[in-house]
Design brief:
The protein contains no helices and 11 strands. It has strands at about 1-5, 10-15, 20-25, 30-40, 45-50, 55-60, 65-70, 75-80, 90-100, 110, 115-120. The strands form 2 sheets. Strands 2, 4, 5, 6, 9, 10 and 11 form a 7-stranded mixed sheet that branches. It has a 4-stranded antiparallel sheet with strand order 1-3-8-7, with no helix packed on it. The protein starts with a strand and ends with a strand.
């Protein structure tokens, strides 16, 4: 079993900052890319930021210049630093890890966390 746990969400005023963390544990052998997604009420889940095993990053246009994704590969952890938050950033934020599970060699799968709520008040 592979577990993905997000933390760091909360309530913050517009203009404030939050740092989300995502830890992958259990029978994970290797992790390729990791990403942060979000889903607001009544909307589809969307990619916020992604990072490859080599450190290449990509961002949604709506968060460029405000959010920064990073990872500590040795600890199977990813972070999302969110600055200058806006009310429209309010959503449940999910972490996705693309990797290989021990015993399921050569099968690349996506593992999702349960999400962490981010609420930005105006």
């Amino acid at each position: 079993q592979v577990q993905v746990v997000e933390s760091g969400g909360g309530l913050v005023q517009a203009g404030g900052s939050l740092r989300l963390s995502c830890v992958v544990s259990g029978s994970i052998f290797s992790i390729n890319a990791m990403g942060w997604y979000r889903q607001a009420p009544g909307k589809q889940r969307e990619l916020v930021a992604g990072i490859t095993s080599g450190g290449s990053t990509n961002y949604a246009d709506s968060v460029k210049g405000r959010f920064t994704i990073s990872r500590d590969s040795a600890k199977n952890t990813a972070f999302l630093q969110m600055n200058s938050l806006k009310p429209e950033d309010t959503a449940v934020y999910y972490c996705d890890a693309e990797g290989v599970q021990i015993g399921r060699w050569s099968i690349l799968e996506n593992y999702w966390g349960q999400g962490t709520q981010v609420t930005v008040s105006s």
